[in-house]
Amino acid sequence: MSRKMTGIVKSFDAISGKGFIIPSDGRKDVLLHISALYSGESESPKLGDRVEFCRMNGLKGPVAANIYLS
Question: pTM higher than 0.85 for the full model?
């Protein structure tokens, strides 16, 4: 099940397209993958960017889906 959340980009590697988001509610960091970024976004996430996303349970922990840059 997903839940809409907000957070801040903790890290992002443009080469691998992966990084992490620190959720605002203090939960465990969430995996960010460039493929989950809303298709209307023209730029990559950067350290410190505020984001809105849905938290999903992945095979190795929480992952972000439907990511919007704020």
Answer: yes
DSSP 2-69: -EEEEEEEEEEETTTTEEEEEETT----EEEEGGGB-TT--S---TT-EEEEEEEEETTEEEEEEEEE
Query: Mind listing the pLDDT tens digit for each residue in 48-59?
Result: 999 999 999 999
Residues (pLDDT < 70) of the chain are 1-3, 39-42
- Residue of 18, 32, 17 whose CA lies nearest to 62: 32
The CA distance from 31 to 51, in Å, is 13
Q: Which residues contact 64 (CB under 8 A, 6 or more apart)?
A: 21, 30, 31, 32, 33, 36, 51, 53, 54, 55, 56
